[in-house]
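Re: duplicated header lines in exported C-alpha cells

Our pipeline writes sequence and C-alpha cells for each protein into one text file. With two proteins the header for the second block appears twice in some exports. Here is an export where it did not happen, for reference. First protein block:
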Amino acid sequence: MEEIKNALIDLYLGVKVRKLSEINNMPDELVVEEEQILKKLPVLEIINYISNSIEILSEIKAQEKYEEKILEDEEKEKYINKNDIENDPNGLKLYEGMLIKAESDIRNHIRVSNYYIILIYIYLIFR
C-alpha cells in the first residue's frame, strides 16, 4: 500500500499545474517537503488532487485548441476573395464556405462535449 501511495505522490507531483519557471527554480528541499506533506494525506485525497490537476490541464489544452481554431478561422476568412463573391452573384461559394465552417463548429462542439462527459465519468468513478 505504501508503494502505491508513493507512486500516486510521484504522479501528482508530475501532473501538478505549475509555471515552468517554478519547476526549474524549485529547490530539492521544497520537493522533499511537499512529498512529506502529501505522505500524511489519505490516498483518496491524493487521487482527488491528481484528478483536479488533470482536469485543469485538460481545460488549458482545450482553451489552447479553441484559440488555435479561432486563428485558423480568421485566416480562412482572409482568403475569401472579393472576386469570388463578384463572380458568384447567388453567393453559393460564400454560402458553401459558411456551411463548411458551421459543420466544423458542430463537430468540434460534439467532440468537446464528449470529452467533458468522459471527464465527468472519471471524476464520478474516482470520487
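Second protein block, exported in the same file:
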Amino acid sequence: MQPQPIEYTQPVQYTQPGQSPTPDQYAQPATQYVQTPLQDSVVGGDIVTNNINNMYPAVQPNQQIVYVTQEKGSNNALPWIGVVLILVSLFLPYISIEGFEVSGFEMMGEVGDIIGEMDGSGDGGSGDGGDDADVPMEFMFFGIAAMMVGFGPFIFILSAVISAITLLSGKSPKAMGVLHLSYGVIFLIVAFIGTIDAGILGSWSMYDLTGFGFYMGAFASALLLVK
C-alpha cells in the first residue's frame, strides 16, 4: 500500500531525508480573537450608538419609578349649565292654571306667607282627627304633590348653590344631582297616584297645574351627574 500524502495547512520546515517532521513543525497556531471596538454608525442622519451599555441605562440602587395619575377635575361645562338652568327656572311659571301663572320666586313668597299665617294661628288648631280616615288616597297624594311643587323653589335654589360651591372647589356635584333628580322623579310618581276623578269634568292631577318652570328646575339636575 502506498502511503497517503499528508496535507499541511501551513508550510512545514525542511527536514533531512529519512526524517519525519516533528508535530511542532506543522502544528496550527492558536486562533486569536481580536474584539474590535464598537463604533457609532450614522443611519438616516441620526447617530446610532452600538455600545450595549448605552442601550440600556444602568439602574441605580434604591431608585423608584413613580407614576403620577392626574385626575381630571370637574371642569366640564354641562354641570354649570345645569346650575344656570335651575336658577333660570325660578323666573318661569311653577303653577299654570288657565293663563294664571306663578313663577318660582312668587311661589316662594306665597309659601312664606302661608307659613307665617299658620304660625300666627297655630294656638287654636284643635280639630277632629277621626275625619282624616275618610279622605281618599288620591286626594292625599294630590296634596303631597302640591306641597312638593310649593317647596320646590326652596329646594332647587339650595341645590343650585351647593352644586356651584362644589364645582368651584374642583369636585363633582353628582351626589347633589342624584338627590335633586330623585325629587323630580318622586313628584311624578306621587302626582300620578294623586289623580282625582272629577266625573263629567274629567280627571285632575298636579300635572295639569304644574308649570314648565318646575319641570325645568327638577330635571335640569340631570346635567349635574356629568363628570
